[in-house]
């Protein structure tokens, strides 16, 4: 783990991805998700310059839902940008159970998660025809969420990421964080994934994303608190 030297700019933000009921106890529960609630709450007690949460906030007919297409859950289809034609920027899409429908109990933050410690909440996946795993933007880069502007306005240099799920929204958000120019860290013991293959960690490492745990994060943030 490389701790920034005291002379280097260091403005850390915590990005907590999708700690919502449906991803912890509901229709698309991630294995082991309840185990990270206390870890994430501990991270929220650290002196990050910004603490930002995200929510999937889907319409009831979202393109990622198997029910929308009347196909089996966890089957796959090919999707295109709205108005796109076959073969144009095609993406493979897993068809999920209905989850995190906007303003329903499943979309709420899970009980026990200290969401009141967040500075702001960013909604994603709000367009019926666009899947958005990343907290930064849709996969075709048609539009950004408010997150890039928030981080820039707050002078953030380093983004620390926790939450669900490691092999989808965490991974995609981390990759975009690097592409937007941020030194990016994933906090391993504060993340759980849908699959147990672990391939997401290799992908993130190749993209220049750094890995650490919550204890190491605390050590870095204590130094930051003293210096600022």
From TrEMBL:
Keywords: Hydrolase, Metal-binding, Pyridine nucleotide biosynthesis. InterPro entries: Isochorismatase-like_dom, Isochorismatase-like_sf, Isochorismatase_Nicotinamidase. It comes from Collybia nuda. It is an enzyme of class 3 (hydrolase). This is nicotinamidase. The lineage of its organism: Eukaryota, Fungi, Dikarya, Basidiomycota, Agaricomycotina. One of its GO terms (molecular function) is metal ion binding. Pfam families: Isochorismatase (PF00857). Pathway: Cofactor biosynthesis; nicotinate biosynthesis; nicotinate from nicotinamide: step 1/1. One of its GO terms (biological process) is pyridine nucleotide biosynthetic process. Its EC number is 3.5.1.19. Residues 13-201 form the Isochorismatase-like domain. Belongs to the isochorismatase family. PANTHER family: LD05707P, PYRAZINAMIDASE/NICOTINAMIDASE.
């Amino acid at each position: 783990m490389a701790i920034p030297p005291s002379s280097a700019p260091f403005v850390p933000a915590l990005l907590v991805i999708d700690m919502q009921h449906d991803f912890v106890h509901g229709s698309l529960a991630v294995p082991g998700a309840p185990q990270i609630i206390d870890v994430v709450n501990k991270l929220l007690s650290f002196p990050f310059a910004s603490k930002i949460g995200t929510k999937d906030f889907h319409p009831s007919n979202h393109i990622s839902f198997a029910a929308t297409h009347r196909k089996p859950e966890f089957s796959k289809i090919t999707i295109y940008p709205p108005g796109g034609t076959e073969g144009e920027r095609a993406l493979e899409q897993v068809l999920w159970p209905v989850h995190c429908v906007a303003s329903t109990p499943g979309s709420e933050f899970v009980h026990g998660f200290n969401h009141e410690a967040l500075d702001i909440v960013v909604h994603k996946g709000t367009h019926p025809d666009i899947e958005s795993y990343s907290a930064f933007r849709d996969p075709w880069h048609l539009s950004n969420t408010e997150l890039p502007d928030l981080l820039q306005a707050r002078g953030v240099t380093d983004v620390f990421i926790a939450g669900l799920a490691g092999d989808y929204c965490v991974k995609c958000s981390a990759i975009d964080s690097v592409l937007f120019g941020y030194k990016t860290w994933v906090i391993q013991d504060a993340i759980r994934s849908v699959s147990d293959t672990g391939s997401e960690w290799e992908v993130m490492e190749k993209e220049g994303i750094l890995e650490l745990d919550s204890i190491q994060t605390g050590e870095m943030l204590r130094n930051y608190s003293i210096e600022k």
